[in-house]
Amino acid sequence: MSRFGDATAVKRVGEGRYEAVLDGDFGFAEAVNGGYLMAVLDRAAVDASPHAHPVATSANFLRVAKPGRAELIVDSRKTGRTAATSLVTLVQDDRRIVDALVTTGTLDAATEPSWAGAPPVPAIPSLEECTDFTPGSGEGGFAEQVDMRFDRATMGWLDGRPSGTPEIRAWFRLRDPYEPDAFALALAVDALPPVVLNLGAQGWAPTVELTWHMRAVPAPGWLALHGGGRLLSGGWFDEGVEVWDSAGRLVAQSRQIARTGR
Amino acid sequence: MSRFGDATAVKRVGEGRYEAVLDGDFGFAEAVNGGYLMAVLDRAAVDASPHAHPVATSANFLRVAKPGRAELIVDSRKTGRTAATSLVTLVQDDRRIVDALVTTGTLDAATEPSWAGAPPVPAIPSLEECTDFTPGSGEGGFAEQVDMRFDRATMGWLDGRPSGTPEIRAWFRLRDPYEPDAFALALAVDALPPVVLNLGAQGWAPTVELTWHMRAVPAPGWLALHGGGRLLSGGWFDEGVEVWDSAGRLVAQSRQIARTGR
């Protein structure tokens, strides 16, 4: 296994019941990352399903998850030949932390797309031209687990010069020897800093709801993350992420609705 | 009330329990439209919530809904000051038809956006330049309820000449005297023909999962629907719809994952 594999492992303890130990290093301060939580939820959903992949995950983040023990309850809602749906709930201290509707299916890595849209424009500059703004400090935390190389044009907010456009782009991989799979994609779709930082927003931007779709089995190597948003109004903003793999394929899509302060 | 108002009405029959009568005229053949079902689900969610609007609705379509009586079960998962989340299940004949996680909140119609992206390109041609391909026949059915005027450039599939690009654009309003609101938006985000018809796909394209976000209180008048997709692979396709109101504002966003035959 690997750090990410260990950190997202679920142990079956009964019919539709799992246990996990949430790893605080996949988070910031005391809040565990939402993508990491989805990776854990999706592992439970897939384990309880006849299908191999989390094709659709709609997660509602009800409360902040803390490092430590968690229970997962997988309530099967329908099992079909092509897809199965379950309600997966992550519980800590008898409180619901995340509710997710997860549709599992089985994607064939050998499938050629019938039709594929063009990659997003602009492309992310080469790895060499990008910057690691969050180098591993040796002190643990998210940046120790994930290697991200950012398009500098989207990182002006770090220096108090937000670009004015809610976009952030970056290369992504786990520092682990862990190649992209369904669960790494769950982490990837919520790994970028909030795109509204480029609109001058500050502070924490809690995700209320995030839906992501796994579209293909990813190739080994770096993933390209293209994050953008369409509207910030009344403290609500949307953020969509497309994830492209090293073979140039769209492998995941997400959209979340989140809150921000001023 | 109105036909749409009546058809989506829910009657509270107990704590978190509602009844509705599904109107077959909001559907095609014997299948009731998914957007119509979401309008019914969202009415129940809002009725059971302290908040006024369905800010996020993630619906999983488990089985085909039939016209006639349905029960709705609203299971409150968390109630907060800014938002509340519930699991809403539509049941017919003791079988789950749709499961939806619904986050309610209250949007202020007077709020000016902090930041808004540009409207989609290309714009939809004027109403006069668009075509009503599905005129009301007087025989009932979806086209009798909804007035849609299509951008002809996106309707080649009707004549066996699919455009090759999975996009469909149309103006939308209810034929009723019923101005756009949250529930009309639920109908609108799933009202377009499947965009994969422009890739040569044929037949029914059942939605597996659809998430939509209400972003603003819509102005009276026509709604503009911009539908597009990014990938068709292994029989799975995504379809996203942006809904813009007559005041030129983004009022709803959706993405669904659906199945198609060849």
UniProtKB/TrEMBL annotation, chains A, B:
This is Thioesterase family protein. Pfam families: 4HBT_3, 4HBT_3C. Residues 130-258 form the Acyl-CoA thioesterase-like C-terminal domain. It comes from Actinomadura rubrisoli. InterPro entries: ACOT8-like_C, Acyl-CoA_hotdog, HotDog_dom_sf, Sec_Metab_Biosynth-Assoc, TesB_ACOT8-like_N. Residues 25-104 form the Acyl-CoA thioesterase-like N-terminal HotDog domain.
